[in-house]
Amino acid sequence: NTPIMNFNIFEGMRTLAANIAVEMPEAEVYSTHYRLLFMSAFTLFILSTLIYGASTLAYSVYFFKQHPPLQKKGALLLSFGAVFHGSGIAQSSLAMGTLPIHNLQQTLLTAALMVAVVFVGMRQRLELKILGLFAAPLILIMMLAALLLPGTPPVHTDTMVLKGFWLITHVIMI
Fold first, then answer.
1. Which of 21, 43, 46, 32 lies closest to 143 in space, CA to CA?
2. Is the pLDDT of residue 104 over 90?
3. Is the overall model pTM greater than 0.90, yes or no?
């Protein structure tokens, strides 16, 4: 995670998610640096939404054509989308100090990641090929709904309740 750039593409490069995680604690709240870090996290979410859309398309074509490589490509795309999506959720968690489930937008984004992770795990274990036709569009719809919702500020009632172990476990298990 070094910020030093080199002309060799395999040396001295920091990933976008690592950059956000390293620099977020140092950024002054609501500064330009802080807003740019959130914009880079938003870029991760947009990228994961596009990848989920491509996965949905691959699974839809697989359903009608029954061409096995399309199903594998759809699963691979969904896995890559989950990695980018997880990076964005991890960045939000680091910035907030808790799991981002304080408003409907954050809850939809977190739930979409959980559906993606459960699907990837189920697919690896059970070889359910057609399940992607249901999971990929569901994840895509959740992501699009979250991205179209207004970014309402979280309600600050009792933050200790939102940082509790049982609430985080409950959200992950859903």
1. 46
2. no
3. no
